[in-house]
């Protein structure tokens, strides 16, 4: 009689061991073998935990980061034009309101995240300089004996006009930062700002560094919003303020229907005609629908450690400004 092969012995022993283990239940220990129902559930939960949404599409977390990067890389050159076209220019008003609500004081250190094209940063610098000019005019009215040269010198010192205020624009996308830098040069912004390549979920800054953190139309594109909010809290000084301008949930049924019609039927077409990119603007529309409603996002901000969290809906809830403080 021929001796059984090694493979056959292992197969027999393996089947026997498997049957034995299936019948074995150690006290306090639940089976977590992949083949067991519990094991299957654990694997399924792990898979779901590593998945997220890219618009209405379900993708892996890693894949979403790559896809979002590609979206903004592809639309960077037409980003500002498309913002004007999609919102009929109203986005400018929303951003102005954000600055009015911020009401920065002289010496404010601002971090603007996902602000590659500089819209919030430039408004911040304009706001600070406008404050300085108003103060100058009040002072000049009380100083009647100044020469024209002295008056001119007071207006020419751009650094003094910022009163120590400074803004850091942080964006993960190189192309968006390039556009922002070109705009800054073209519009004459030379001092008071810096451009940093960085991830909202892992900011390259020390703790307790900034007075104000802003993110406008950017947080819905991050993979882990909770991490981005925690990072915002970390880099703010005690007493610092978090401000987020983002698309939200429309609270008027009629406006909601018209808004949906415009969003899904018009915006992707504009994206194709103006930017040559239907898919990217289809994603942007879908990502708005996946973003939490005002109250839910408020709770997320509170969970990150912020206090006195409030929100203000604009344009019937098409966008909302959320505010919170690190206390």
From TrEMBL:
S-adenosyl-L-methionine binds at residues 117, 171, 199-200. It holds the Pfam family Ubie_methyltran. One of its GO terms (cellular component) is extrinsic component of mitochondrial inner membrane. GO terms for biological process: methylation. Gene3D superfamilies: Vaccinia Virus protein VP39. Its EC number is 2.1.1.201. It is a peripheral membrane protein. Its main location: mitochondrion. Pathway: Cofactor biosynthesis; ubiquinone biosynthesis. It is an enzyme of class 2 (transferase). It comes from the Eukaryota. SUPFAM superfamilies: S-adenosyl-L-methionine-dependent methyltransferases. It is found in: Mitochondrion inner membrane. It catalyses: 2-methoxy-6-(all-trans-decaprenyl)benzene-1,4-diol + S-adenosyl-L-methionine = 5-methoxy-2-methyl-3-(all-trans-decaprenyl)benzene-1,4-diol + S-adenosyl-L-homocysteine + H(+). Keywords: Membrane, Methyltransferase, Mitochondrion, Mitochondrion inner membrane, S-adenosyl-L-methionine, Transferase, Ubiquinone biosynthesis. CDD domains: AdoMet_MTases. Belongs to the class I-like SAM-binding methyltransferase superfamily. MenG/UbiE family. HAMAP family: MenG_UbiE_methyltr. NCBIfam families: MenG_MenH_UbiE, PRK00216.1-5. Component of a multi-subunit COQ enzyme complex, composed of at least COQ3, COQ4, COQ5, COQ6, COQ7 and COQ9. Interacts with PYURF; the interaction is direct, stabilizes COQ5 protein and associates PYURF with COQ enzyme complex. This is 2-methoxy-6-polyprenyl-1,4-benzoquinol methylase, mitochondrial. It comes from Pipistrellus kuhlii (Kuhl's pipistrelle).
